[in-house]
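Re: that backbone. Tokens:
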């Protein structure tokens, strides 16, 4: 039994970080540096991104982001998410956790790396029988990705998380800094602004075959066994937190069974399996402790 649990733990760590202990080189680097970063211990961002609900929030964010045709076209045309889903997942996890727990220089470097990747992501999609150009570094698309991400992580933490210093407004205000680092011109600074900006995108969102294909892949990626079962529960939890109007566009339904409660039990199990706090937070806390000791 213990061997099976250990194998499952290693498998999940590899899925999330690329390392079977959850400690790839970029995580150990978080222990080094000369500042606390843009957020630091006691921040709402540390509380939200260090919590186990992020496992659901990431999936929810991916689902939401597919609804903007420019974002979806960029993923379809330039991403290898079907051939290498774990590679894309690892890259996203690395950006989120480095920006959250790293020094300011580490966060800026992580955002700059993603921004450089975005330079190559451009093309066009068809809307109302017309070709519409898109670029991953377009301010509108950057804003959509930031808003969808922020909303997903906030709502999932509100549903399953424990504590959030300053509440929703503080989280949105703090995480706006990451949006600015990525080139977002006017990120929301309160929950009300977040809701307003999300609603303002409604006329631009749509469902089509690309969205249906992406949703189907997100629903059933090439995982098997116990991993597939746990994944299906997390997917159901993600869907359950998405408002009905977006669920209709995505072509998904809230499960008939108690997905919120079942996901709560799954997250409890995963927290015990993977350990809390996360390895990223552990190494970042070591850096902060060294800085505090140096200050006396």
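Recovered sequence:
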């Amino acid at each position: 039994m213990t061997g099976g649990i250990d194998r499952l733990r290693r498998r999940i760590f590899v899925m999330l970080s690329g390392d079977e202990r959850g400690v790839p080189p970029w995580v150990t680097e978080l222990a080094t540096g000369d500042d606390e970063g843009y957020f630091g211990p006691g921040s709402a961002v540390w509380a939200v991104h260090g919590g186990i609900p992020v496992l659901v929030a990431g999936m929810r964010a991916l689902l939401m982001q597919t609804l903007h045709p420019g974002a979806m076209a960029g993923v379809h045309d330039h991403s290898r998410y079907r051939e290498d889903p774990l590679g894309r997942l690892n890259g996203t996890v690395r950006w989120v956790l480095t920006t959250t727990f790293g020094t300011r220089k580490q966060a800026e470097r992580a955002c700059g790396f993603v921004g450089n990747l975005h330079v190559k992501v451009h093309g066009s999609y068809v809307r109302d029988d017309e070709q519409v150009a898109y670029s991953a570094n377009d301010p509108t698309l950057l804003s959509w990705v930031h808003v969808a991400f922020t909303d997903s992580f906030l709502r999932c933490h509100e549903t399953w998380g424990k504590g959030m210093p300053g509440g929703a407004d503080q989280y949105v205000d703090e995480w706006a800094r990451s949006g600015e680092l990525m080139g977002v011109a006017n990120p929301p600074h309160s929950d009300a602004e977040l809701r307003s900006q999300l609603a303002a995108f409604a006329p631009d969102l749509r469902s089509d075959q690309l969205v249906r294909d992406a949703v189907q892949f997100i629903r059933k990626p090439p995982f098997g066994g116990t991993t597939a079962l746990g994944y299906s529960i997390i997917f159901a939890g993600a869907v359950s937190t998405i408002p009905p109007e977006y669920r209709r566009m995505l072509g998904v339904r809230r499960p008939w069974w108690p997905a919120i409660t079942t996901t709560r039990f799954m997250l409890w199990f995963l927290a015990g399996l993977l350990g809390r706090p996360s390895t990223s937070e552990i190494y970042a806390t070591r850096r902060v402790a060294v800085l505090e000791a140096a200050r006396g």
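The first strand starts at residue 122 and ends at 127. The two ends are 47 Å apart (CA to CA).
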